[in-house]
């Protein structure tokens, strides 16, 4: 079993195709259930790196959750502390604050409520109705950021 702090699920071929479609629509200005293109400077190259993400809004706050774990965009965002959300020609610069594991519980639950159809496989046996203890145990494997 992979330790939650090291959890990373590489994208499969079907995921790559789906991500390309969502990214193309988002770049054209069509948001698919809150999708944005995340742009973050690479932590070693300094070059912009982009990936489609689901922008989650909970009680007036905005969040990014990494359902595949400690991905490259997560590592880059930790290093940069800032990035851009793009939708069509609109570009919004933000700063990110990574959430503590206990802060993630309501965010993970809402993320699963909204996007389980898309990302549920990455959460294995968890769903929006999972007990707090199960979400708390899994939380280290799902980085999440509050955007400002």
UniProtKB/TrEMBL annotation:
Which InterPro entries does the protein's record reference? Answer: F420H2_quin_Rdtase, Split_barrel_FMN-bd
GO MF terms, alphabetically ordered: oxidoreductase activity
Gene3D superfamilies the record matches: Electron Transport, Fmn-binding Protein, Chain A
The UniProt entry, under Pfam families, shows: F420H2_quin_red
Q: Which NCBIfam families match?
A: hi_GC_TIGR00026
According to UniProt, the name of this protein is Nitroreductase
- The organism named in the record is Pseudonocardia halophobica
């Amino acid at each position: 079993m992979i330790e939650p702090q090291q959890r990373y699920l590489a994208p499969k071929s079907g995921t790559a195709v789906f991500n390309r479609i969502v990214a193309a629509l988002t770049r054209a200005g069509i948001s698919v259930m809150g999708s944005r293109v995340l742009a973050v400077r690479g932590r070693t190259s300094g070059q912009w790196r982009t990936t489609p993400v689901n922008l989650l809004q909970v009680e007036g706050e905005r969040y990014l959750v990494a359902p595949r774990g400690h991905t490259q965009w997560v590592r880059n965002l930790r290093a940069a502390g800032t990035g851009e959300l793009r939708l069509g020609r609109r570009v919004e610069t933000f700063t990110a604050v990574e959430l503590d594991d206990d802060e993630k519980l309501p965010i993970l639950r809402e993320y699963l409520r909204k996007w389980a159809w898309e990302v549920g496989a990455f959460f294995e046996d968890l769903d929006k109705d999972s007990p707090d203890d199960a979400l708390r145990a899994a939380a280290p494997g799902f980085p999440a950021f509050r955007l400002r």
